[in-house]
Amino acid sequence: MTRNIAIILAGGKGVRLDSRRPKQLLKIAGKKVIEHTLEVFESHPEIHEIAIVSNPEHVGDIEEVARANSFSKLKKILNGGAERYHSSLSAIQSYVDQDVNLIFHDAVRPLVNHRIISDCIQALITYSAVDVAIKTTDTIIQVQEALVEAIPNRDLLYNGQTPQAFRIQTIKAAYDLALKDPAFKATDDCGVVKKYMPGEKIYVVKGEQFNMKLTYKEDVFLIDKLFQLKSSSDNGMPLSAEIKAMLKDKVLVVFGGSYGIGKDIHDLCKSSGTLVYSFSRSNNVDVSAQEQVTAALQQVFAREGRIDFVVNTAAVLDKQSLANMSYEDIVRSININYLGSVIVAKESFKYLQATKGALLLYTSSSYTRGRSLYSIYSSTKAAIVNLVQALSEEWADVRINCINPERTKTPMRIKNFGNEPEHSLLKSEIVAIASINTLFSDRSGQVVDVKL
Asked: Is beta strand 31-32 parallel, antiparallel or unpaired with respect to 142-144?
């Protein structure tokens, strides 16, 4: 079987960024850039092995990254060279006698996703060389001595990205020919194949606008914001037999479990043999009251001796302008929607740390931008996302994520919007299924979108 090897190119010095440290070692969203990149390839099921090609001056730094993380697929740290193509050659020579595909990716493109990687691997079944690109949106002009010489047809132009993927025999043959050329000058690996093996077709996989490269100072801010908005998705497919089996005898605490999404999570898990405990204001547990949350968790632990999962769906929505809201309603909304999540997180931590468990909170699509009549609700939901992302960096042994459902038919929504067409709303059970799937996932710090 042909193995897929991810080659992470980390030879940059950060000259254009004007940084003392190379770009791949800068911290963004709580981790070094290269750590974000490695996590994507480490978690991809079709990547068999990872090799990093480093600037020789920073091999020690890369080794420290490897020691600090559990990257089981990372097998090699190779020395690069003065030019980018030296790094590619280093990887090719390291795997030259093996039946492998080489998937070259810039360490400083940390927002690459599984879909792009999968498409590259799939394309290598048919083609020997694969590029990734997005359609150019700006008009491109060809300039010489400050004068426009030509304006190429924009419909034919694309912006190149990485990964670039190759069957090893193809990329090796291209470089063998290139190195015999005294005038050889490489820009990227696909360029080498195109110039020296003109008969070889290079397939183009569709990239993503957010798969940007960290190059300039401004990019640090943009990439950090993109990480803040980064989400994964779950369409709420029925619970698999595997998940149902894993639910058996687990201990789950649901806050806000008397109706809506929380009630569906309670019922689905209980039917699979989970030991479920549900708390809400209807049984005198208010998530904004620390002593009540503490007592509820202590009660469960005293009975079961463990807590594997905690879910907090408790929320209120006051759909009105800030000017018309009473301070009593404002404080109540902030306390339940945000402070309640903080309290549940803080009080749950010691129990979940002991079991390496998971905590699940809930946001709303309004977290990305405040909307009229939702000022308090939207701002608390944005705070939930920031809380989840921050705690995922603080907590090594507890997974924490938040669910971001589209419009969902719940009693809270009906109270604020009245009757709406059934086809325009998610069923709360679909969100509950996505929530349970997320409890068992390896991800942490993620916003999980659930859509119609």
From this structure: unpaired
Closest CA to 158 of 226, 209, 88: 209
The 10s digit of each residue's pLDDT in 17-31 is 556 788 999 998 878
Residue 446 has pLDDT above 90, yes or no: no
Tell me how far apart the alpha carbons of residues 279 and 285 are, in angstroms, rounded to a whole number: 6
| Domain 3-229 shares a fold with domain 232-450 | no
Task: Select from 31, 24, 32, 27 the least CA-distant residue to 53.
Answer: 24
Domain boundaries, the chain: 3-229, 232-450
Helix axes 84-94, 168-178, angle to 10 degrees: 130
208-225 pLDDT per residue, tens: 999 999 999 899 999 988
Distance (Å, whole) CA 395 – CA 353: 8
User: Which stretch of DSSP H or E encloses residue 401?
Assistant: strand 399-405
Q: Mean per-residue pLDDT for 437-448? A: 90
Distance CA 7, CA 49 (A): 9
- For residue 43, the one-letter residue type is S
What are the b/e assignments for 346-356, b being 16+ CB within 10 Å? ebbbebbeeee
* Prediction pTM value: 0.74
In what helix (H) or strand (E) does residue 5 lie, and over which residues does it extend?
A: strand 3-10
Range scoring the smallest mean pLDDT among 160-169, 286-295, 374-383, 412-421? 412-421
> How much is the pLDDT for 81?
85
**Which CATH code for domain 3-229?**
3.90.550.10
Give the pLDDT of residue 227. 83
Please state which CATH number belongs to domain 232-450.
3.40.50.720
At 17 the pLDDT is 59
Cα of 257 vs its chain's centroid, Å? 28
Edge to edge, what strands does the sheet with 129-135 contain? Answer: 74-79, 49-54, 3-10, 100-106, 158-167, 129-135, 202-206
For a pLDDT cut of 90, what percent of the chain falls above it? 77
Rounded to 5°, angle at Cα 426 from 424 and 431: 165
